[in-house]
Specification:
Radius of gyration: 65 Å
Shape: rod-shaped
Structural class: alpha+beta
Distance between the termini: 173 Å
Number of strands: 11
Mean pLDDT: 75
Number of helices: 10
Low-confidence stretches: 285-297, 314-357
Helix content: 55-70%
Oligomer: single chain
Length: 357
């Protein structure tokens, strides 16, 4: 009875001590065995491990890739355009012993605070050495790589390996947005004005060239038209001259009829002229206009026949006969070249004559 009473507490103490001396290292973490705050051993391989109960303790650290968001910070690039940059980093604890020595009992929280300081400093240094257009262009990836490479060296003192640094957003400060937008609007308006001015200049040049071409074409067409018109007028005048040379009286008769047809138009046309006007050479009274014109034509035919007979008589007879023939032909010439209006029945004493068609 006494033995069992003693053995049970001893067994219980042994079991508790055995359980407290054994711990499990997960594959997602690393462990440090500390004895009075000093690192005794490092457990990086997953599985069972042992420690001295009540004297040693185990501190665990995550062995996975961790992410850390950096608070937005303002930077000033080379062109003095202030930007607000929001970034994040991915890191991993590479040396747990050095990490413990660097951050102490603060653990991940203290390490991330110091890591933020490193990343903010490197971000300001790299982005402050370039212009804002480079930050917003395709060179952004190269800038992020420079920040990562510079932060790796500083983070090694913490036992941390920086895997990647990324810029999530790059914005303008809220107090500078209005001024920046105004400046951008002014630049775009200036570019639009320049483009519009160049377009107007090109339009004026094209319009002037087109006007010049129109003037040249019109001038050339007018010149050719004047040449053709002159040639036609010359041909017409030649035809008129040839007709006049062949039979002047018939030409005069034809032109008079043309003048009548042009002057006397409509159903009721009236003209007030002097009785001895040349316009009445082939126009008689209203009743005998056609008859007068026909008589005039007959008189011209008779005159030509008389002229032919006179010429024949002059060659066949003596001077007395020639004089008699000339005397006989005189009344015919006087009748033709005198006043045709008298033959048509128009009185010479009338002051005016009204002709109606």
């Amino acid at each position: 009875m006494r033995k069992s009473t003693i053995l049970l507490p001893v067994i219980f103490v042994l079991v508790v001590g055995l359980l407290s001396s054994v711990f499990i290292v997960d594959e997602r973490e690393k462990a440090l065995v500390l004895q009075f705050g000093r690192v005794v051993s490092v457990k990086e391989e997953p599985g069972l491990a042992f420690k001295i109960p009540l004297i040693q303790e185990v501190v665990r650290y995550d062995d996975r890739i961790l992410s850390r968001d950096i608070d937005p910070l303002e930077i000033t690039p080379l062109d003095d355009r202030r930007l607000v940059v929001d970034a994040f980093a991915r890191y991993r604890i590479s040396d747990v012993n050095r990490f413990r020595q660097a951050v102490g009992a603060g653990g991940i929280t203290a390490a991330e605070s110091r890591l933020d300081s490193i990343l903010r400093a490197e971000t300001r240094e790299v982005l402050g050495s370039v212009s804002s257009s480079d930050i917003l262009s395709s060179d952004r990836a190269a800038l992020m790589l420079r920040i990562r490479n510079n932060a790796i060296t500083a983070a090694r003192a913490l036992g941390v390996d920086i895997i990647d640094v990324r810029l999530k957003s790059t914005d303008l400060p809220s107090q500078n947005l209005a001024a920046t937008f105004d400046r951008m609007r002014a630049e775009r308006e200036r570019e639009a004005t320049d483009e519009r001015a160049r377009g107007n200049e090109a339009a004026q040049r094209i319009r002037a060239q087109a006007d010049r071409t129109v003037v040249e074409l019109v001038s050339e067409a007018q010149r050719e038209a004047e040449i053709v018109r002159g040639e036609a007028d010359a041909l017409r005048n030649g035809i008129f001259a040839d007709a006049f040379g062949r039979d002047p009286e018939f030409f005069e008769f034809y032109r008079s009829l043309t003048a009548y047809s042009r002057a006397l138009k409509g159903e009721n046309s009236s003209m007030v002229l002097s009785p001895d006007s040349e316009f009445f050479n082939y126009l008689g009274s209203a009743e005998g206009a056609g008859r007068g014109a026909l008589s005039s034509q007959e008189s011209r035919v008779s005159r030509r026949e008389s002229d032919a007979e006179a010429a024949a008589s002059e060659t066949a007879t003596d001077d007395g006969t020639a004089e008699e023939t000339a005397a006989e032909s005189e009344p015919q010439t006087e009748e033709e070249s005198g006043r045709p209006a008298d033959a048509a029945g128009v009185s010479p004493q009338d002051e005016t004559s009204t002709v109606s068609e």
